[in-house]
């Protein structure tokens, strides 16, 4: 247990007291603040200007009613959120999540993570996040469209290409981004392509954005493996989730010579010892928007393990990529993974490992890449999408992918550097938190006490 300096203890107490109904936000803040202890002396103004408390309080939070009608004419009321956490490094940037578990605490946790993640990319993007407790599952295309239109009918007043730029996250992909943009355009009479990212490539989206988060998480694990003279090639991997991030992590793992033996959704896991079939998986999940159970029905070599009967983390693997949701991997899961021979974890999801799981990974000294570093490829390519929109240009897939690869190598390098300088070599959690923080702190100091 680290000995904490008084300003960190005070900030932790202060954050706990004023956010006690938001345990997930507190979890995210605690992790960062614990990491920062050795870096406080970098600039005396961090303490003098109460920078830590300023950073833990969102600059602005927006919560609004979203009313929409289903196909039977029934009127529903949902809650919409946009939390603008920090504009120290640029316009607020971060996705929108549509999922029934969304509440203010969840959006604050995601917005807080986004500050440090965006900082690590080296690009000029601040941190924000938004979403709604709307559940798109089982909803028709026209219901999803009406919901998106209603959501944007409030949000449009608060976003702009140099103000706040949303994107996708759980439950929000290029389809939803299209409906959101359409309503923004209708309300403002402006074709501001740079107001949202993750757009379809037919009308302003960047090639490579869809793939970026998953590909990036794999580039990151490969960078970590390189430090041990290893690579992804020839390894066995499991990837939780089967949404956007998971699918493209799987694709890249396969491209780089790994065998991906399992993935999951909220109903359970598919396990296929010889390796998953990409074409079937993509067809069911990305084209048909189906369930993973159907994959096992179509692929006789695959076994479906229901959520009640087991977890993806029970399956032996060399590499584990949690790419579904927060706190999906607990201490017991982590022990099982490590005891079964897992040597590296790269988090495609935001904060998928509980604090207990993190402790296991750090204690057992496996290669552990936390989400704010490992999944930063998505937002980095979103910023490239903004650049292309601003210059009315579009780059090739290989140009974007090349930049993504460089960005992930650079983030990896920062984590290694700051871990070595302030913590211990190989401690990617401290390296990411300190590296992300110091750039934001420098900007906040320059901007004065605001
Ligand atoms: N999209 C992006 O560019 C980025 C995403 N992320 C993070 O990656 C993760 C996945 O996002 P993304 O792939 O975009 O989202 P998708 O909606 O495309 O996919 C989410 C996947 O996770 C599963 N899942 C979601 N919630 C739960 C839950 N409570 N329990 C079990 N499974 C769940 C879903 O299963 P089911 O269909 O059954 O619900 C689905 O397979 C999130 O943590 C997100 O914040 C991070 C950086 C960028
Ligand atoms: O692409 C973006 O702007 C944000 C992606 C995102 O939501 C995330 O990094 O968690």
Automatic annotation (TrEMBL):
<feature type="binding site">
    <location>
        <position position="93"/>
    </location>
    <ligand>
        <name>substrate</name>
    </ligand>
</feature>
<dbReference type="InterPro" id="IPR006095">
    <property type="entry name" value="Glu/Leu/Phe/Val/Trp_DH"/>
</dbReference>
<feature type="binding site">
    <location>
        <position position="244"/>
    </location>
    <ligand>
        <name>NAD(+)</name>
    </ligand>
</feature>
<feature type="binding site">
    <location>
        <position position="168"/>
    </location>
    <ligand>
        <name>substrate</name>
    </ligand>
</feature>
<dbReference type="InterPro" id="IPR033524">
    <property type="entry name" value="Glu/Leu/Phe/Val_DH_AS"/>
</dbReference>
<dbReference type="InterPro" id="IPR033922">
    <property type="entry name" value="NAD_bind_Glu_DH"/>
</dbReference>
<dbReference type="InterPro" id="IPR014362">
    <property type="entry name" value="Glu_DH"/>
</dbReference>
<comment type="subunit">
    <text>Homohexamer.</text>
</comment>
<feature type="binding site">
    <location>
        <position position="117"/>
    </location>
    <ligand>
        <name>substrate</name>
    </ligand>
</feature>
<keyword id="KW-0560">Oxidoreductase</keyword>
<feature type="active site" description="Proton donor">
    <location>
        <position position="129"/>
    </location>
</feature>
<dbReference type="InterPro" id="IPR050724">
    <property type="entry name" value="Glu_Leu_Phe_Val_DH"/>
</dbReference>
<dbReference type="Pfam" id="PF00208">
    <property type="entry name" value="ELFV_dehydrog"/>
</dbReference>
<keyword id="KW-0547">Nucleotide-binding</keyword>
<dbReference type="InterPro" id="IPR046346">
    <property type="entry name" value="Aminoacid_DH-like_N_sf"/>
</dbReference>
<dbReference type="GO" id="GO:0000166">
    <property type="term" value="F:nucleotide binding"/>
</dbReference>
<dbReference type="InterPro" id="IPR006097">
    <property type="entry name" value="Glu/Leu/Phe/Val/Trp_DH_dimer"/>
</dbReference>
<dbReference type="Pfam" id="PF02812">
    <property type="entry name" value="ELFV_dehydrog_N"/>
</dbReference>
<dbReference type="GO" id="GO:0004354">
    <property type="term" value="F:glutamate dehydrogenase (NADP+) activity"/>
</dbReference>
<dbReference type="GO" id="GO:0006537">
    <property type="term" value="P:glutamate biosynthetic process"/>
</dbReference>
<feature type="binding site">
    <location>
        <position position="213"/>
    </location>
    <ligand>
        <name>NAD(+)</name>
    </ligand>
</feature>
<feature type="binding site">
    <location>
        <position position="382"/>
    </location>
    <ligand>
        <name>substrate</name>
    </ligand>
</feature>
<feature type="site" description="Important for catalysis">
    <location>
        <position position="169"/>
    </location>
</feature>
<dbReference type="InterPro" id="IPR006096">
    <property type="entry name" value="Glu/Leu/Phe/Val/Trp_DH_C"/>
</dbReference>
<dbReference type="GO" id="GO:0005829">
    <property type="term" value="C:cytosol"/>
</dbReference>
<feature type="binding site">
    <location>
        <position position="114"/>
    </location>
    <ligand>
        <name>substrate</name>
    </ligand>
</feature>
<feature type="domain" description="Glutamate/phenylalanine/leucine/valine/L-tryptophan dehydrogenase C-terminal">
    <location>
        <begin position="206"/>
        <end position="448"/>
    </location>
</feature>
<keyword id="KW-0520">NAD</keyword>
<dbReference type="InterPro" id="IPR036291">
    <property type="entry name" value="NAD(P)-bd_dom_sf"/>
</dbReference>
<comment type="similarity">
    <text>Belongs to the Glu/Leu/Phe/Val dehydrogenases family.</text>
</comment>
<protein>
    <recommendedName>
        <fullName>Glutamate dehydrogenase</fullName>
    </recommendedName>
</protein>
């Amino acid at each position: 247990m680290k000995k904490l300096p008084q300003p960190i203890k005070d900030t932790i107490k202060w954050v706990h007291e004023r956010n006690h109904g938001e345990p997930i936000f507190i979890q995210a803040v605690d992790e960062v603040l614990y990491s920062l202890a050795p870096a406080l002396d970098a600039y005396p103004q961090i303490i003098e200007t109460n920078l830590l408390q300023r950073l833990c309080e969102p600059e602005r939070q927006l919560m609004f009613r979203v009313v929409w009608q289903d196909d039977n004419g029934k009127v529903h009321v949902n809650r919409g959120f946009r939390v603008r956490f920090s504009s120290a490094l640029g316009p607020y940037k971060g996705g929108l999540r549509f999922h029934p578990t969304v509440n203010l605490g969840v959006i604050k946790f995601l917005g807080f993570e986004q500050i440090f993640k965006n900082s690590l990319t080296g690009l000029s993007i601040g941190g924000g996040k938004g979403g709604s407790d709307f559940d798109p599952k089982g909803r028709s295309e026209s219901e999803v469209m009406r919901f998106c239109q209603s959501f944007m009918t409030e949000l449009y007043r608060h976003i702009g290409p140099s103000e706040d730029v949303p994107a996708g996250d759980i439950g929000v992909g290029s389809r939803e981004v299209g409906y959101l943009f359409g309503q923004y355009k209708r309300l403002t009479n402006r074709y501001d392509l740079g107001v949202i990212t993750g757009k379809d490539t037919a009308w302003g989206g960047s090639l490579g954005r869809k793939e970026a988060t998953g590909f990036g998480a794999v580039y990151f694990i490969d960078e970590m493996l390189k430090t041990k003279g290893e690579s992804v090639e020839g390894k066995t991997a499991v990837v939780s989730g089967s949404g956007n991030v998971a699918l493209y992590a799987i694709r890249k793992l396969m491209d780089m010579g790994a065998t991906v033996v399992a993935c999951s959704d909220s109903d359970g896991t598919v396990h296929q010892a010889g390796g998953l079939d990409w074409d079937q998986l993509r067809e069911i999940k990305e084209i048909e928007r189906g369930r993973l159970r159907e994959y096992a029905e179509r692929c006789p070599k695959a076994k479906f393990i229901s959520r009640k009967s087991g977890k993806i983390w029970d399956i032996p693997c060399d590499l584990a990529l949690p790419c579904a949701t927060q706190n999906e991997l607990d201490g017991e899961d982590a022990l099982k993974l490590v005891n079964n021979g897992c040597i590296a974890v790269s988090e495609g999801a935001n904060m998928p490992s509980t604090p207990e799981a993190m402790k296991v990974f750090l204690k057992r000294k496996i290669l552990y890449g936390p989400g704010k570093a490992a999944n930063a490829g998505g937002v980095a390519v979103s910023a490239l999408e903004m650049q292309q929109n601003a210059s009315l240009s579009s780059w090739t897939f290989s140009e974007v992918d090349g930049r993504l690869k460089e960005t992930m190598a650079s983030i990896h390098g920062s984590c290694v550097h700051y871990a070595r300088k302030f913590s211990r070599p190989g401690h990617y959690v401290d390296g990411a938190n300190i590296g992300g923080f110091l750039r934001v702190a420098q900007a906040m100091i320059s901007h004065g006490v605001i």
